[in-house]
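Practice problem: LytTR family DNA-binding domain-containing protein
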Amino acid sequence: MIKAIIIEDEQHCVQRLQGLLQQQAPLAVRVVAVAGSVAEGLQAIREHRPQLVFLDIQLQEQTAFDLLGQLEQKDFEIIFTTAYDQYAVPAFRFSALDYLLKPIDPDQLQEALTRITGRQQDHHTAARLDALLHNLKDLQGATKKICVPVMNGLVFVQVSDIIRCQSQVNYTTFYLKDGQTMVVAKTLKEFEGMLNDYNFFRVHNSHLVNIAYIKSYNKGKGGYVVMSDDSEVEVSSRRKEAFLKKLME
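Answer key — structure tokens:
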């Protein structure tokens, strides 16, 4: 059973989360403490050494990051609970950290718990938090970093360094501007959802390209693009019109 703490300053939010946990995960998660401030949260974490913390972003006059900055070790999983500005939400996704928008949706809570259970022993929480802090400072995406799980751990890649992503069944290969490639055990669709707002376009079922690295477009039924690494990427005929419109923006 996962030992959890809730750090939340709104009592009705605490009650809703506790109720959902009792309904959905009565045998999987045990809440051992509830705290309503940064000071109380620090005390609860140090006393109970939880495996999971549900952490509200805004805690009275302080934030979750004030709390995290005072911890010597961050050896627990975190699910942020937030009414945070929508433009900051991609920062959580890019950093591979879980967040729940208030009011908490039961299905999203269940999905987050499933992910937490699957990665409980990966010991990369501190690295994910570092990436989150970087991404929150860079909401426009100029130096945003994306968390990429590889065979021996995690790699944080600057979005602007990605030339293209290629699908291979349930894997995605990243091609970077320095010539490196990385194979990731995630589908292209997952990365498409993250990168679409950062000048990427799905030109084909098998390819997501960074428009900034397109050298030329060659006509044909769908045509193809030549990327900065001289790779040629086919454009599907059904995506051609939307792609050309995107190029003209």
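Discussion: The two ends are 52 Å apart (CA to CA). Students who identified this feature from the tokens alone can consider the problem solved.
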